[in-house]
Amino acid sequence: GWRQIALAGGATLREILAATFSYGDQRLWVLDRGISGHHERELRLLRVDPFGASGASVEVVAAWDQRFTGTYWLAVDRDGSVLLTVGLPGSASRTARINVAGTPRVVLVHTEPGNLAQAPIVDSTGYSFIVTKRDGGLRIRRQQRLSGLCCDRDVCGGDDDGDQDDGERACRWEDMGGRF
Fold first, then answer.
1. How many CB atoms lie within 10 A of CB 54?
2. Predicted confidence (pLDDT) per residue in 102-154, tens digit
3. Among 112, 108, 83, which residue's Cα sits nearest to residue 171?
4. What angle do CA 60, 36, 13 make, to 5 degrees?
């Protein structure tokens, strides 16, 4: 059944933009937005342990200044990793696959052309991206796997569709504001 989660240590959530639960690490993942110490709109990616004995512990996985106004989604991939997607109006969407084992890290950044109408759909055979067409209609694009800038060759299998230098920049949490 449903249960309320009490955050431990006085942790607080700000404006929640997206959330999902990963079976890969048994954690609630939250993307929130607030004002940072230097008065910029800041995004935070949080990992919450909802099963803590003395309340749900909150880990700030990453924080970056929000440079774009877009729609954000969090989803779980087939292997339990987390997908962070931003849909930018009039631009391509970006999806970062985050490995949740151990220290969370971005392992791949996928770019999808067009305006996403909703979060990417993950199922047993692949990924669906529903995109709004210029005439107001919708199109769906199916892919068996995500491709893009590989951040971890062990995870991607060396199958990088982009420039590795760009991939390395895309993979650092501190550079997420430039892409998300």
1. 8
2. 899 999 999 888 889 999 999 999 999 999 888 889 999 999 999 988 888 77
3. 108
4. 50
